[in-house]
Amino acid sequence: MVIFSMPRRIAYNVNASEELLNLSTMLNLKNFLIVTDKIIEKTDSFVSLVNELTKNGINIKVYSEIIPEPNIDIVNKIIESMGGYVPDLIVSIGGGSVIDVSKILRAKILRPDINSQDISPFLSLNIENKKPLLVVIPTTSGTGSDASFAYVLKIKENNNEIKYASGNYELVPYESILDITFLKTLPKKQLIITAIDGLANDLEGIVAINSNPLTEGLAIQSARMFFKYLPDAVMTRSDESLANLHLAATLSGIAFSNSGVGLVHAIAHPLGSLFDIPHGMAVSIIMPYVIEYNYKSDFARSKYDEIKIVLEKIDGFQERNNLKDHLIDLYNKIGQPLRLRDIGIDKNNYMRKIEEITELALRDPDLAFNPITPSFEEIKELLSKIY
Ligand SMILES: [Fe+2]
């Protein structure tokens, strides 16, 4: 049996406040809880959204204390801060951290009897279609969390905080609203690394062992859009490029959350946490080398070659020998570094930790979806190459 999940509605090329008011009328929603962070709360786009909603009779409570990479327990603090306010809609405005907290928050409001950390694919929550519903306005183009059932949050384990990834089909947001005004203030580096993460989700998902026609179609289209529009989005921030990037990220979220990812993510998780490298940057640096490695698999080779043909139809793309070379062309166009030495990682310190990263990568759950299983020595070799 194959289950495919995605949000019930996706609105793009829209003004977020107009779409929220539509939804309010359609579903009789009047009490919104907006979850966001301090930076977004200060933007003009946020202020005008809240004004517009208030003017139209919506009751609003804002929680804006979400920090990057939060602990799952933050949901208890949010519920306490609500002081008895009963929302019928949670509006999550932010990147992956804000969105993932909002998913658990909704589950916890509806199921206070459940321990947040126990929310896994195997638990029946019985919260589907119950209020508060969750809608997401993503402010980066890459995590895909607006369209997925997954979450990555920190949990406590033996007195340490570790990153924990899990999910549940009932956590999929009701709607993803793609309004590019929220992308305009995103710093360039953030724009690039979140988009490359989205692209990595596509290129890994296409060759993942759980890939199927639904995920493959979306991932190929999404990858095509990232390659086509990312350079322009970086250089000009044109509305057209941002709108396409934003949609590509959501397509990617639907695709990879249903197909799984692979070795790029299995390496990027320990690499990122041991050297404090942002997830999108870690993914970006390892990806070309993993693609080169995966060419050993006939299945991966045939899929990569299909994408190569799609890319070569885009204006300004040349014919290349393999998909890795296309990726390097893209990095060169947007000024993205290729190696760890280029982002200030100390060589000796890195070399000392290569075996630890390798061990952690071999234990990472994402590795199970890679088309081939690498040996300890093969991962070590990949890690040497990326310095
Ligand atoms: Fe990722």
Description:
- Helix 5 (96-110) links the parallel strand 4 (89-94) and strand 5 (133-138).
- This protein folds into two domains: 9-183, Rossmann fold (3-Layer(aba) Sandwich); 188-385, Dehydroquinate synthase-like - alpha domain (Dehydroquinate synthase-like, alpha domain, Up-down Bundle), CATH 1.20.1090.
- The strands form two sheets. The protein has a six-stranded parallel beta sheet, sandwiched between helices.
- It is of the alpha/beta class and 387 residues long.
- Helix 6 packs antiparallel against helix 7, helix 6 runs parallel beside helix 10 and helix 9 crosses helix 13.
- It has 14 helices and eight strands.
- It is 51% helix and 12% strand.
- The protein binds fe (ii) ion.
- Fe (ii) ion binds at residues 197, 200-201, 265, 279, 283.
- Fe (ii) ion is lined by residues 197, 200-201, 265, 279, 283.
Provide a short characterization of the protein structure.
With 387 residues, the chain is of the alpha/beta class. It has helices at residues 16-27, 38-41, 44-55, 74-81, 96-110, 188-207, 213-235, 239-259, 263-275, 279-294, 298-311, 323-334, 347-363, 376-385; strands at 9-12, 31-35, 59-63, 89-94, 133-138, 150-157, 160-167, 175-178. The longest helix is centred in the middle third of the chain and has 23 residues, at 213-235.
What's the arrangement of secondary structure elements?
Blueprint: E1 9-12, H1 16-27, E2 31-35, H2 38-41, H3 44-55, E3 59-63, H4 74-81, E4 89-94, H5 96-110, E5 133-138, E6 150-157, E7 160-167, E8 175-178, H6 188-207, H7 213-235, H8 239-259, H9 263-275, H10 279-294, H11 298-311, H12 323-334, H13 347-363, H14 376-385
Parallel strand pairs: 1-8, 2-3, 2-4, 4-5, 5-8
Antiparallel strand pairs: 6-7
Helix pairs in contact: 1-3, 4-5, 6-7, 6-8, 6-10, 7-8, 7-12, 9-10, 9-13, 10-12, 13-14
